[in-house]
């Protein structure tokens, strides 16, 4: 599930799983490169990003896998769930449809993942307040109902992007320290070098590219 490495405390792998359109590739780019790219092509297959972070005084290598969001790839992305220790479940605050389908995606994640998975609910595009269709209070209520952590972010302004990734990683790290995750037996089918956790970013609008 993990392996301490010579130059860092742990190496963590994050997985981005989603339909296209809520800005998950932009969130990834903002976190890894600290820059915003307004228009992205649809992710085909898997894209990769990495960054060093510090948790509890330890250097952590955070590796992020951004998987394709089209429906045709959904069965493939499900194969990554079982070993996941955490997820970032993302909707677009300017599109009610992405919020309305959260329950389906959450059930899908929990059905195919570790029962101890840490899940953070993210309402992205918080900079577009004038176009908001989902109130912040609705996101908070959904998170409470389903036992999730909640945060709103903006890939464009970088608001809470850092916190979303790092706080999820911290929650997982704490579970490792508490022995909630069996580091010897879990995730070995995915990799014997890393603890895997999933940043699972969801949009329900298949086939279109939405900036941010």
What can you tell me about this protein's structure?
The protein has 212 residues and is of the alpha/beta class. It has one domain (11-178): P-loop containing nucleotide triphosphate hydrolases (Rossmann fold). It is built from 6 helices and 7 strands. The chain has helices at residues 24-33, 74-78, 96-100, 102-112, 136-146, 161-178; strands at residues 10-16, 46-55, 58-67, 86-92, 118-124, 149-152, 195-199. The strands form 2 sheets. The protein has a 4-stranded mixed sheet with strand order 2-3-1-7, with helices on one face. Strands 4-5-6 form a 3-stranded parallel sheet, with helices on both faces. A hairpin with a 2-residue loop joins strand 2 and strand 3. It starts with 9 loop residues before the first strand and ends in a 13-residue tail after the last strand. 47% of the residues are buried. Residues 187-195 and 200-212 have low confidence and may be disordered.
In short, what is this structure?
With 212 residues, the protein is an alpha/beta fold. It has a single domain (11-178), classed as Rossmann fold, CATH 3.40.50.
């Amino acid at each position: 599930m993990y392996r301490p490495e010579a130059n860092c405390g742990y190496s963590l792998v994050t997985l981005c799983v989603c339909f296209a359109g809520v800005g998950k590739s932009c969130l990834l780019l903002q976190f890894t490169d600290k820059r915003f790219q307004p228009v992205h092509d649809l992710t085909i297959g898997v894209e990769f990003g990495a960054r060093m972070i510090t948790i509890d005084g330890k250097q952590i290598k955070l590796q992020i896998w951004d998987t394709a969001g089209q429906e045709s790839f959904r069965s493939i992305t499900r194969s990554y769930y079982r070993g996941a220790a955490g997820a970032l479940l993302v909707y677009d605050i300017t599109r009610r449809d992405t919020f309305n389908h959260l329950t389906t995606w959450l059930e899908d994640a929990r059905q195919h993942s570790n029962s101890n998975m840490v899940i953070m609910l993210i309402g992205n595009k918080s900079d577009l307040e004038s176009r908001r269709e989902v109130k912040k209070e609705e996101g908070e209520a959904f998170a409470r109902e389903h036992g999730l952590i909640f945060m709103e972010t903006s890939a464009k302004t970088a608001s809470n992007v850092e916190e979303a990734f790092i706080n999820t990683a911290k929650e997982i790290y704490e579970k490792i320290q508490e022995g909630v995750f069996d580091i010897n037996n879990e995730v070995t089918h995915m990799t014997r070098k890393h603890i895997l956790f999933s940043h699972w970013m969801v949009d329900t609008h298949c086939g279109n590219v939405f900036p941010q």
